[in-house]
UniProtKB/TrEMBL annotation:
Cited SMART domains: M16C_associated
InterPro entries linked: Metalloenz_LuxS/M16, Pept_M16_N, Peptidase_M16_C, Peptidase_M16C_assoc, PreP_C
BP terms from Gene Ontology: protein processing
Peptidase M16C associated domain mapped to chain residues: 462-714
Protein name stated in the entry: Peptidase M16C associated domain-containing protein
Species whose genome carries this gene: Clostridium scindens (strain ATCC 35704 / DSM 5676 / VPI 13733 / 19)
Residue stretches spanning the membrane: none
GO molecular function: metal ion binding; metalloendopeptidase activity
PANTHER family: PRESEQUENCE PROTEASE, PRESEQUENCE PROTEASE, MITOCHONDRIAL
Source domain of life: Bacteria
Length: 973
């Protein structure tokens, strides 16, 4: 690797990382003691990360507030928000920071060498020389502060992290995860909440905050990681000269202490809030949790991922099935958290009742005992190993760079042992070891030792309490009022002055000289050419096929598509149910658990989805095409099995299994509610858009709020509805899965086409050959403007509309507007000043536009911010440098590196949406050549979106009731 000659570093270990096709090198910086990890390969999506071990000593959230704050200006880059400047003006493929229970990491990634160096520079400066010492306002903005707009107003707390954690603590799943961690490790830093407990955050002082940085943000406590195709020696030399050589080694006490096992299992109960009109029945979470060794045991680390699959996570797994059959909870979930020093294996019954606790424990331990005594299903173990090994070899992390995910996994061991960064990332030998253990009693012994005999565990119950949020809000209001009353008139005026001073700091424009210090690329650094679209139309065995010839490392990605035209509006929600049921219900030849295992033994997985494609050549008619899709990925040699299994699922599923259907509906209802809580912003935006968009209405009917309402109704009236449900599912399967309704998208290298004709012919023969029904689908939209009340303390505020309906048109410059609004106007007004955790906007080719906030303490104020966008754009005036920055940030979103599967999906999406290469090239030119006049003209687009006046808010009962006059209807989930 050529780093031995660098005098500033000591090479500790070099390793050939065959599993990820890379060379690894572990070093220590001699002067500062910084730990360095290099992973060198030919990946041009380069990653840099600096992390620190940050065990929290209390629940004030200081690690989390620090993570936000160091990115708000530094010695070399003194502008108020270099992070956002880099989001707006770099070609990053990843740019973020994350707080974990025991560490804080700052990763960046880019394919552009110059950009990558810029990102490294900004991040190193941010963590080591932040402006937090100069500007207390950063702490008050990102952490917490008293907000008193005038002496007559109510005193409030505000702050980005404070509001973010109010949202996080509103989720019962979030409450459960935190309580489990705190309960299992009472003598360690895991007993504290690193993200911050909203009730404790206001106890943090500015001086304590600074002390935390002084103690932990030192190179001696750092973990620096470089990955990809770059000159490692040059990067190490730069790190030494610019930063590390300025620091001497100090001893930092940041050890993650080991929790001694308990003498007996502990139990804990804690309430969570539900809305006043929700039922407390069937709303309790029961959880069974055991500590599993340490994350430094590489066999155990992976073995329990396999056991999690075989015992709990896979459909039909014995723990999941036994608890479901016993009626203990309606949604059985589990997890194996190995991202901490002592991993946790958890079994959770959601929608249970507190009085079922004893039966819950009994069922779990009976199943575990039977598995330990009689043996685990060997096929389930084989499937679990293949499932994880396929993903390890494929290394497809979606939108996340490979190097980022590898780096985070290495921290699972490196953080706890300086000499062991590679043990989990170099996993091929571990997989081979685990395969050999099947049938030897190894897995059964693990169950006996770590799950049955292990007393280091906790039974945690999270139970519902009506109106808890409102009660806590009242108590907080009274507490703040009492504090305000205790202040003298002058002290109250001081709070008003401090509030205004913070607002003045936030509103003051950055000095142009400071902004100019943040490095940006030039427009000329961006390629003017689009990524090629790879679509080759074929006809194989009478089936239309679109082939995407891409090197895929021997994996074929198959997407079989069935058109939904002909499905009536009344049946669309049932299509959503059918899509959710297939693959997890018995078929003619397999019980559903065995089916899932068979799939994972031979393939990389099979899944179903509903997709919508809008005809961009016919936007005024709102023409779109909806498809039911079943997707598989497998090595070429295993593709025949994949096709057989897809045919089995589509044509042989036992849709008359009422018992299983009822179980799936209950699980679906549970998962949708969880999605609404974690992704309320996308849910609200989709719902608001459905008031005028037939395609959005279809999405809402099959995976949104209307779908949830349908599921909830059928589940509640199951005896009356089950006959209709079964008949509708069977009817839809006959109607959709016809040979003449089949189309294929296939991504592979040329050799992957071998035998495709045989496989398609076989599948086609298994499908229905009836004549299609001629019943065109007419979707009716209706404006509602709804407020959905939850027990949350924050809001998701969505305003949407179709700008083409109101006379505007689409242009590539709208992609720039998205960056300007999301990271300039909305960021400043909704996040920085309003205290929301997030805000975003979007505009698409069919005229749909939206503005939405995330974990937002406000409602009406946010709507006023949206109303101000038009005037902001009319007056939009920026320098050429700023305009270039926005364009580069836009291209960063467009030019994200893609996996082979993603390249195939992109090409197919463009094909189905009728988007030509010429259209994309034109949009790219409109982006690269845009000036501020082009942005000003877009005020008409925003005006057209707002004119639709479509509003949906998901949020706290109190806020929505306060603003009831904004809504046509107000309801609860």
């Amino acid at each position: 690797m050529g780093v031995k000659d660098l005098n500033a570093y000591q090479v500790l270990k070099e390793e050939d990382l065959k599993g990820i096709k890379a060379k690894g090198c572990l070093l220590r910086h001699k002067k500062s003691g910084a730990r360095i990890l290099l992973v060198e390969n030919d990946d041009d999506n380069k990653v840099f990360s600096i992390g620190f071990r940050t065990p929290p000593q209390d629940s004030t959230g200081v690690p989390h507030i620090m993570e936000h704050s160091v990115l708000c200006g530094s010695r070399n880059f003194p502008a108020k928000d270099p992070f956002v400047e880099m989001v707006k003006g770099s070609l990053n493929t990843f740019l973020n920071a994350m707080t974990y229970p025991d560490k804080t990491v700052y990763p960046v990634a880019s394919c552009n060498d110059k950009d990558f160096q810029n990102l490294m520079h900004v991040y190193m400066d941010a963590v080591l020389y932040p402006n937090i010492y100069k500007h207390e306002e950063i702490f008050r903005q990102e952490g917490w502060s008293y907000q008193l707009d005038s002496v007559e107003d109510k005193l409030k707390y505000n702050g980005v992290v404070y509001n973010e954690m109010k949202g996080a603590f509103s989720s019962p799943e979030g409450v459960l995860d935190r309580v489990v961690l705190n309960t299992l490790f009472p003598d360690t830093s895991y007993a504290n909440e690193s993200g911050g407990d909203p009730e404790v955050i206001p106890e943090l002082t500015y001086e304590q905050f600074l002390d935390f940085h002084r103690k932990y943000y030192h190179p001696s406590n750092s973990y620096i990681y470089l990955y990809g195709d770059m000159d490692m020696e040059e990067k190490l030399d730069w790190l030494d000269k610019e930063y590390l050589s300025k620091f001497d080694f100090v001893s930092v006490d940041s050890e993650i202490k080991y929790q001694d096992p308990f003498a007996k299992i502990v139990e804990k109960e804690i309430p969570y809030s539900i809305a006043s009109d929700e039922s407390e029945e069937d709303n309790t979470y029961l959880s069974y949790n055991k500590v599993i060794g340490t994350s430094l045991d590489k066999e155990l680390y992976l073995a329990f991922q396999i056991l999690d699959y075989a015992l709990l996570s896979a459909p039909g797994a014995p723990l999941k099935k036994a608890l479901t059959d016993a009626g203990i909870g309606k949604d059985i979930m589990g997890s194996y958290d190995n991202g901490i020093y002592q991993p946790i294996f958890s079994i959770v019954s959601k929608n249970a009742n507190q009085e079922q606790k004893k039966a819950f424990i009994q069922v779990i331990e009976d199943v575990l005992r039977e598995c330990a005594d009689k043996g685990i299903d060997q096929k389930a173990l084989e499937a679990g190993i293949n499932y994880h090994e396929f993903r390890y070899r494929e290394a497809d992390f979606g939108n996340y760079p490979k190097g980022l995910m590898y780096g985070l996994q290495m921290m699972d061991s490196w953080l706890y042992d300086d000499e062991k960064p590679f043990i989990h990332i170099e996993a091929l030998d571990t997989f081979e070891f685990l395969k050999k253990q099947i049938g030897t009693g190894y897995y059964e012994e693990l169950i006996q030792k770590y799950l049955l005999d292990n007393t280091h565990g906790a039974i945690v119950i999270v139970k519902p309490e009506k109106g808890r949020t409102a009660q806590r809000d009242r108590e907080l209001e009274e507490k703040l009022q009492a504090y305000k009353n205790s202040l003298s008139a002058r002290e109250q005026e001081v709070l008003v002055e401090r509030t205004k001073a913070l607002e003045a700091y936030q509103s003051a424009p950055d000095d142009e000289e400071d902004l100019a210090k943040i490095p940006i690329l030039k427009r000329e650094d961006i390629s003017r050419d689009i990524e090629p679209i790879i679509n080759e139309e074929m006809n194989i065995s009478g089936v239309p096929v679109v082939f995407h010839e891409i090197e895929t490392n021997g994996i074929g990605y198959v997407d079989v598509m069935f058109d939904l035209s002909g499905v009536t509006e009344e049946m669309l929600s049932y299509v959503g149910i059918l899509q959710s049921v297939l693959g997890i219900i018995d078929t003619e030849h397999f019980e559903y658990g065995a089916l899932f295992n068979e799939i994972n033994m031979h393939t990389g997985g099979i899944g179903t989805s509903l997709e919508l494609y809008s005809d961009v050549t016919n936007v005024r008619e709102k023409a779109f095409r909806a498809t039911f899709e079943i997707k598989a990925k497998a090595l070429y040699a295993k593709l025949p099995v994949a096709f057989d299994m897809m045919a089995e699922i589509l044509t042989q599923s036992k849709l008359e299994d009422e018992k299983r259907l009822k179980e799936i509906l209950a699980m679906l209802k549970s998962r949708l509610l969880m999605k609404f809580q974690s992704s309320g912003h996308t849910t609200a935006a989709l719902r608001a858009m459905s008031y005028s968009s037939p395609s959005a209405k279809l999405k809402d009917m099959t995976n949104g709020i209307e779908f949830y309402e349908k599921i909830a109704y059928i589940e509640e009236h199951f005896e009356e509805e089950k006959g209709r449900l079964v008949e509708n599912l069977k009817s839809l399967a006959r109607q959709l899965f016809r040979a003449d309704n089949m189309m294929l998208s296939y991504t592979a290298a040329k050799e992957g086409l071998q035998d495709m004709e045989t496989m398609i012919s076989s599948m086609k023969a298994s499908l229905n050959h009836e004549e299609p029904k001629d019943s065109p689908c007419m979707i009716h939209c209706q404006k509602k403007n709804e407020g959905f009340k939850t027990a949350s303390k924050v809001q998701y505020v969505a305003r949407t509309g179709n700008f083409i309906d109101n006379g505007a048109s689409y242009t590539g410059a709208l992609q720039i507007l998205k960056v300007i609004l999301s990271y300039e106007y909305l960021w400043q007004n909704i996040r920085v000043k309003g205290g929301a955790y997030g805000c975003m906007s979007n505009f698409n080719r069919i005229g749909e536009g939206y503005f939405v906030s995330y974990r937002d303490p406000n409602l009406r104020r946010t709507l006023e911010v949206y109303d101000g966008i038009v005037e902001y754009l009319k007056e939009f005036t920026v320098s050429e440098r700023d305009m270039t920055k926005y364009i580069i940030g836009t291209m960063s979103n467009i030019d994200q590196p893609m996996t082979p599967a993603a390249k195939g999906d992109r090409s197919m999406n463009l094909y189905m949406n009728k988007v030509s290469a010429e259209m994309i090239q034109k949009e790219r030119r409109e982006i690269l050549e845009a000036g501020q006049d082009d942005i000003r003209r877009l005020s008409k687009v925003v005006e057209a979106v707002l004119k639709a006046d479509q509003l949906c808010v998901i949020g706290s009962e109190e806020k929505i009731e306060e603003e009831r006059n904004l809504f046509g209807t107000v309801t609860s989930f």
